[in-house]
Input
Amino acid sequence: MAALDKMVKNVFNLLGPDLEENTNTLQRKIELLTSRKDDVHMELQYEEYSDGKKRKREVEEWLINVEDIITEFETLKEQVQCCKVYTRQKLTEQVEIMTNEVTELLEQSYFPKGLFHEYLASRFLRRMLALLADEEMSRIGLWWGRGIGKTTLPNKLSNESTFLDHVYHVRVSQGSSIYKLQSDIAQGLKLDFSCENDERRRANILSEAFKRMGRSVLILDDVRKQIDIEKIGIPVGMNGCKLIITSRSKKVCHQMDCQRIIKVNSVSEQDDWELFLKKFGSVKLQT
Output
């Protein structure tokens, strides 16, 4: 039976398309497509979180299609390697169809109109940027208006540098103590508090660390009640250290002595705030 299969296969090779050769050609195209996919990924990772950019849906769909066809090719290649005589014609047709699809994906891969939508900075974003650029402005409060669902701020932030050198984001859990907040902030600053339990000494260490680093922003997210910043060790207003708090309560923003208090009125403004976070540089995130 094996001899008969081999004989018939030789006849197909003489009279019909060369399945193996066509599969090898398809594999080379798949390798080119994989390289192009990697290039697109690198460009996206470098730019997608910079100012006001959002990935186009057609780029997302292209990446999904590429991943799918690469997976499908691995299955097809296995079928070709162990195919029987009676399946060659069908596999030959599948290889031809896939080759055309891969060729089309390669042609689509250069996106002449770019990978991103470009958005002009909204009024909300321009306002936030102006406040942080103001050297006299060191405490800013954001509070979420009625009907706006307060969500955890995004944990994937840009590595692009801007006019601020460091941004640290700490989510304040309900009932957080001074000691706990000191520990969370220290972790972001890569300070070792394992041998230091005195809150005053911990506050001094934090304060000196902030002063040394220069321009910085600490975001205290979802503050439920007044927090004593000095006891924590945050030298707001010194050496470019700025504080942003977000809260469900306008009263808390006043209690925290915020110089400017901004109400987030809509879901779109909440999205703008998330986009605003993506403008900053060296980020350490605590959640």
Notes: The first strand starts at residue 53 and ends at 55. Strands lie at 53-55, 116-118, 139-144, 166-171, 216-223, 241-247, 260-264, 282-286. The CA atoms of residues 122 and 272 lie 7 Å apart. Confidence is low (pLDDT under 50) at residues 151-163, 281-287.
